[in-house]
Amino acid sequence: MTSFSPLLVVAVALVDAEGRVLLQQRPPGKPMAGLWEFPGGKVEAGETPEAALVRELEEELGIATQESCLAPASFASEALGDRHLLLLLYVCRKWRGVPEARHATALSWKRPAQMYALDMPPADLPLIGLLDALL
Ligand SMILES: Nc1nc2c([nH]c(=O)n2[C@@H]2O[C@H](COP(=O)(O)OP(=O)(O)OP(=O)(O)O)[C@@H](O)[C@H]2O)c(=O)[nH]1
């Protein structure tokens, strides 16, 4: 039997009062540099997905939220090199602080309809339609 060890990644659509979603641009030196993605990152050993996302938002954007403010929205399942990516997407409308690009090259608030024209990772593309319908 072949073993299956997916890469588990959590990401969030932070939604502002105007229904725009925060995207961040991956920095040089990382795989898929320059692409626009949802803030988030890998779930570490022993962590729940929600705890990982609260941690990533603090580390990457300097904002604070609570696990109860993270609503599961959708997921993506996609080959990623020799791994298989499971990307869990949450929606969050409540946080404290103003997002700043601590790791990313840039941040941008976008309406879902504007995302179709952006360079985003392949796993994110099916998630755009979901956000377009949801927000
Ligand atoms: N955060 C995030 N990662 C995504 C998205 N879409 C997508 O394919 N990924 C992939 O999921 C993985 C997340 O890894 P990462 O490098 O951001 O994770 P991390 O913050 O833990 O970084 P690190 O590896 O430097 O510690 C990458 O392979 C990334 O390309 C997305 O929308 N947001």
From TrEMBL:
The entry's protein name is 8-oxo-dGTP diphosphatase
Q: Which cofactor does it need?
A: Mg(2+)
**Nudix hydrolase domain: residues covered:** 5-132
Q: Listed GO molecular functions?
A: 8-oxo-7,8-dihydrodeoxyguanosine triphosphate pyrophosphatase activity; 8-oxo-7,8-dihydroguanosine triphosphate pyrophosphatase activity; 8-oxo-dGDP phosphatase activity; 8-oxo-GDP phosphatase activity; metal ion binding
Cited CDD domains = NUDIX_MutT_NudA_like
List the InterPro entries.
Answer: MutT-like, Nudix_hydrolase, NUDIX_hydrolase-like_dom_sf, NUDIX_hydrolase_CS, NUDIX_hydrolase_dom
Signal peptide start-end: none
UniProt keyword annotation of Nucleotide-binding present = no
Q: Which GO terms describe its biological process?
A: DNA repair; DNA replication
Top EC category = hydrolase
Q: Tell me the protein family, please.
A: Belongs to the Nudix hydrolase family.
* Keywords (A to Z) from UniProt: DNA damage, DNA repair, DNA replication, Hydrolase, Magnesium, Metal-binding, Mutator protein
Reactions this protein catalyses: 8-oxo-dGTP + H2O = 8-oxo-dGMP + diphosphate + H(+); 8-oxo-GTP + H2O = 8-oxo-GMP + diphosphate + H(+)
**E.C. no:** 3.6.1.55
Top-level taxon: Bacteria
Q: Which SUPFAM superfamilies match?
A: Nudix (SSF55811)
